[in-house]
Specification:
This protein is α+β, with helices and mostly antiparallel strands and 329 residues long. It has two domains: 81 residues, no CATH class; 217 residues, Hypothetical protein af1432, CATH 1.10.3210. It contains 16 helices and four strands. The chain has a four-stranded antiparallel β-sheet. A hairpin with a 4-residue loop joins strand 2 and strand 3. It is elongated and about 85 Å long. The relative contact order is 0.08. The structure holds fe (ii) ion.
């Protein structure tokens, strides 16, 4: 990330001066940039008045990064003044560079997903996977998308906590990576989906949590994907359609026996199946969903398409094939 165009105030320009850099005008509301005056042309009083008017209306005068040396030489504006004028963007760039440095410092450290998954499964210790995810998130962009920014701010606060949704997010993230999902937006949606899919559990009456059978028939539980989505919409962040879909579909199954819509495999997103499996792995292995079953056994039963306890093996084939590589500790 770098600032390609710096904003500056019109007062920096002097009438009748000839500048060797182009004067750009940027309209933030339209995200459009045009050259107002080409280099080596004397700037008139009328032009300065017009630029002042543009500035009053919210437009930004800009100079291209490669013209900075000429800009400093030919105006009385120095770097400190320019940085102050671009404070928010300079702060953002500094934060980005700090994150990049922290990322690069650990870049060569080896990481074996299967070994760490095994440790999480046998010892219920997700700390190394959580730390690894925190580290990988340092490489995510902080200036591209409000939902990615929200995810980064949220994970910054929650990834150090040993909570069910965090465990789901960690497993879902690494499963998605194993499946070849590498783009930041999709990975961010998977993480947010895992953190928020069961947010509406707070609306379910406490007695329904007495047993899995009482929870399974509670009508509010059957609606919890909708309700979690409703809560999410209250945040007024432009979340992607994929994220909303992952949450809505995280209890659908490939044979059409899931809820809330009973969709079948071809109509369910892979990300939704990833959330489904992460939930099964965490909740069943901790005894929160019927009989407690170890993670390796859950995966073996899914790969062999066996129903045992609350295990639902009706997942997408690419996901089943991928997690096959995680078993046989
Ligand atoms: Fe759920």
């Amino acid at each position: 990330m770098k600032i390609a165009f710096y904003n500056y105030p019109v007062e920096v320009l002097k009438v009748d001066s000839i500048y060797s850099f182009a004067i750009y005008i940027y309209q933030p509301n339209r995200s459009s940039r045009v050259v107002y005056q080409y280099p080596n042309i004397s700037i008139s009083k009328e032009a300065l008045l017009e630029l002042e008017e543009y500035q009053k209306k919210g437009a930004k005068l800009q100079v291209f990064i490669e013209d900075m040396d000429s800009f400093y030489k030919e105006t009385d504006c120095d770097q400190q003044r320019l940085d102050e004028y671009n404070l928010a963007r300079v702060k953002m760039m500094n934060l980005f560079n700090k994150r990049k440095d922290r990322f690069n410092a650990k870049k060569d450290e080896s990481f074996n997903l299967k070994e760490n998954f095994k440790n999480a499964a046998l010892n219920r210790d997700y700390s190394f996977l959580r730390q690894r995810l925190s580290y990988e998130l340092l490489d995510f962009p902080i200036d591209q998308d409000p939902s990615i920014n929200f995810m980064l701010a949220l994970t910054d606060k929650v990834l150090m906590r040993d909570l069910g949704p965090v465990k789901c997010a960690v497993l879902a993230y690494f499963m998605a990576q194993e499946l070849g999902i590498k783009d930041h937006q999709s990975l961010s949606d998977i993480i947010l989906g895992a953190l928020f899919k069961d947010m509406s559990f707070c609306m379910i009456k406490p007695s329904s949590f007495d047993s899995w059978s009482s929870l399974g028939v509670d009508p509010t539980y059957k609606k919890h994907p909708f309700l979690s989505l409703y809560y999410l919409s209250k945040l007024e962040i432009p979340f992607s359609k994929d994220l909303k879909r992952f949450i809505m579909e995280h209890h659908e199954d490939s044979k059409g026996n899931g809820f809330p819509r009973g969709k079948t495999e071809d109509y369910i997103a892979l990300g939704s199946f990833i959330l489904n499996l992460s939930e099964q792995l965490v909740y069943i292995s901790e005894g929160k969903m019927g009989q407690e079953i170890g993670m390796e056994s859950i995966l073996k039963n899914i790969v062999n398409q066996n129903r045992l306890g609350e295990i639902n093996p009706n997942l997408a084939n690419p996901l089943i094939k991928t997690v096959e590589g995680w078993i046989n500790f």
